[in-house]
Amino acid sequence: MIDAPIPTPRDAFEMLLAGNQRFVTGAPEHPNQDAARRTEVAPAQNPFAVLFGCSDSRLAAEIIFDRGLGDLFVVRTAGHVMGPEVLGSIEYGVSVLGAPLVVVLGHDACGAVAATRSAVQDGTTAGGYVRDVIERVTPSVLAARAAGRTEDHDFIAEHIRHTVDLLLDRSRVLAEAVEAGRAAVVGLSYRLADGTAQLVTARGL
User: Fold this and answer.
1) What backbone phi and psi angles, to 5 degrees, belong to 188?
2) Which end of the chain is more exposed for a tag (fewer CB within 10 A), N or C?
3) Domain residue limits, the chain
4) What is the number of other CB atoms lying within 10 angstroms of the CB of residue 185?
């Protein structure tokens, strides 16, 4: 995107979905992955989206959205849980790099959500800092249970929605960008088996 007009949030979202569709159908174009692009983006970056996703090894952003160097500013944690470093990174992508889209990417069969469901149900607890991850996912699991949701995809969707809400609640920078129409925040749920990324929630599109 060097020296190119900044896409609108809607344009950025459609670019992302188009790449995912190419990946799903087995016809990826692998854009911006050659030596010319490497040289082009060496002086500066202008990603069209910030992607905040789960660290799961099956969720490599540039692969599942068929993008390349300089396209996505990626932040990943187990269960896409956030702390100050995550918020600062996302704000940097929007306010400094000018990305018009923030994507929260969750997925089915998420280990962090499964571990949290077990902890809530059985009262078990994990050791080390894994416990912190579980504690941060717990509000989403409790909200889904309170609403009578029992399926895996229900818990995943609730956690994605909760993360989007939390982002906008905690980050004034991001909330103001959305209110001004400079950025949008969307939540997507990725299906491991077929590779599709499905919209769960959207703010500012």
Assistant:
1) -120, 145
2) C
3) 9-107+163-203
4) 28
User: What is the C-alpha separation between 204 and 165, in angstroms, rounded?
Assistant: 12
- Average the pLDDT over each of 34-48, 114-128, 150-164, 191-205 and give the range with the smallest value: 114-128
Q: Which helix (H) or strand (E) holds 203?
A: strand 197-203
**Residue 107 marked as a ligand binder:** yes
In order, the DSSP letters of 19-32 are HHHHHHTT----TT
Furthest CA-CA distance within the chain: 54
Packing angle, helices 111-122 and 152-170, rounded to 10: 100
SS3 content of the chain, % helix, strand, coil (to 5): 50, 15, 35
pTM above 0.85, yes or no: yes
Is residue 100 a contact partner of residue 48, using CB atoms and an 8 Å limit? yes
Q: Which amino acid is at 180?
A: A
Three-class HEC string of 50-75: EEEEECCCCCCHHHHCCCCCCCEEEE
* 61-110 pLDDT tens trace: 999 999 999 999 999 999 999 999 999 999 999 999 999 999 999 999 99
The CATH H-level superfamily of 9-107+163-203 is Carbonic anhydrase (3.40.1050.10)
Q: How far is CA 62 from each of CA 50, 51, 80, rounded to the nearest angstrom?
A: 12, 10, 17
C-alpha to C-alpha distances, 185 to 58, 73, 168, 177, 179, nearest whole angstrom: 23, 14, 8, 10, 11
162 is in an annotated binding site: no
Residue 11 assigned to a binding site? no
